[in-house]
Amino acid sequence: xxxxxxFKNFDPSPxxxxxxxxxxxxxxxxxxxxxxxxxxxxxxxxxxxQMAEVIFSADDIHVSAYQESEDMYASIDKVLDKLSAxxxxxxxKQKSRRRRRQQVQMDVISFAEATSDPxxxxxxxxxxxxMSVEEAAEQIQARDLEFLVFxxxxxxxxxxxxxxxxxxxxxxxxxx
Length: 176
Known about the structure:
4-stranded mixed beta sheet
């Protein structure tokens, strides 16, 4: 991760530079897996106000935070807390999206010849859409399908709805 420091209206002590470098280096844990993460840190002083502003950018993520206090070390700590909270929220949101994006693989098996073993003729990957059971039933009727794999919006689990011979519907709900 590339960290750029800008100091305005004061000359930083070597201890302050080292402290800031060490503290902002801790956000590395939030940016693993991102390409070209860059952090711009702007530290400035105006009379009694010690201001810290950070701008983080990587991939399609752009996060900024601003904090001021009467002590530069406190400003750095507070702005780092804000930035860490924002990056943690983004990371958790991406994790939950990945968990919801489960794919189901369907295989077609042929029983054409009774003497040979069944063979998989084709394979297809399908990303189930979140919907209620009622919406899934409407989809089966509208698209004249035998079955539909979907993500139940109430339980967030993968379900299968199918048309029965009687014209009614059946739902397969896996136990977790």
